[in-house]
Amino acid sequence: MSANKATLELRPECGPIGSEIAGIDLSAPLDGDTFNEIEVALWRYAVVVIRDSNLMPAQLAAFSRRFGRPQVNVRAEATNAETPEVFWISNITEDGKPVGSHDAGRYWHSDLCYLETPSKMTLLNAIEVPERDGETFGDTQFASATAAYDALPDDMKARLDGLTAANGYRYMWNKKAREFGLRPVLTEEELQKYPPDAVHPIVRKHPVTDRKCLFVCEGYTHRIVNLPEAESDTLLQELFAHLANPAFHYRHKWRVGDLLMWDNCAVQHKATNDYELPLRRLMQRCTIEGPVLA
Ligand code: OGA
Ligand code: MN
Fold first, then answer.
1. CA distance 165 to 120
2. pLDDT tens by residue, 5-25
3. Could you say which of 46, 92, 180, 241 is the most buried, measured as most Cβ atoms within 10 Å of its Cβ?
């Protein structure tokens, strides 16, 4: 029996989401039972952290693969050369080149929701965390899409039933480019190399827990299908504002070595842009694909 198994301990945060798993050393082999416990904790708490996980990209990729099929991000310049399923998020530039995506996660979103098969989960590992005078920056915020759905009034639940919406990588690209200036605004023609919109249900059923989750996000969802544009815009703004209610939130304060895992159906997330160089942030990420159920 591995030492890992004996010491697994869950420390739930307060609120609907978030938990710490103590006693796991991911640099040592992990037996199947312990792995299953981690997975159960993920579906139960939606956001879980394993501390002190100082992983090489290949180790992150190997652990991630135990959850399912890893995805290679469409933004090839931010993927790791040897293990392309590892994606870099950083504000660092080396030899004139960004080390990873400089503006990841700036709006509420669910990872890779612009694909037909988005990410069921994400693993994000902190290598460098911005810090000054003992204070850290660049927290990641989470919103429970399950709690947000449950809290909707019944008439809104009825209204959303059966509706679908378009989620666009191309839409996100120019929205970020215009707002933050960290990527070029692209023409329609230039955007063609990125995936077309994916149409998904506005409310989806969690594949493991069966709970209903709100699946529209500020970052990518731009049009409700079969509604006039003005009505679609108003309804989307209303839903985005609803999800932004702190009653549904958990905020992760990073420590170096944190391996944070989240369930992209049960939660949405958003980066906090409250630091700049010389404070450095470097994170490596894997996403695992999963289905969208109506
Ligand atoms: C992500 C993401 C937010 C952050 O890794 O998918 O959105 O705080 N990250 O880095
Ligand atoms: Mn993300």
1. 19
2. 434 566 665 456 778 888 899
3. 46
Beta partners for residue 268, in sequence order:
143
Mutation choice for ligand 1 from 269, 270, 280, 286, CB with most ligand atoms inside 8 A: 269
Task: Verify whether residue 269 is a known catalytic residue.
Answer: yes
Environment class of residue 138 by beta-carbon count within 10 Å: exposed (0-12), middle (13-18) or buried (19+)? buried
Distance (Å) from CA 81 to ligand 1 centroid: 20
Tokens of 41: 């904790």
CB 10 within 8 A of CB 38: no
Question: Torsions phi, psi of 269, nearest 5?
Answer: -145, 165
Angle CA(17)–CA(22)–CA(25) in degrees, nearest 5? 125
Q: Which atom of ligand 1 is nearest to the CA of 271?
A: 8
Please provide residue 67's backbone torsions phi and psi, each rounded to the nearest 5 degrees: -90, -20
116-130 tens-digit pLDDT: 999 999 999 999 999
Catalytic residue chosen out of the listed positions 102, 103, 106, 109:
109
Query: What is the value of pTM for the model shown?
Result: 0.95
Q: Are strands 19-22 and 47-50 parallel, antiparallel or unpaired?
A: parallel
User: What Rg value do the Cα atoms of the chain yield, rounded?
Assistant: 19
- Based on the residue annotation, tell me whether 75 is a catalytic residue of this protein: no
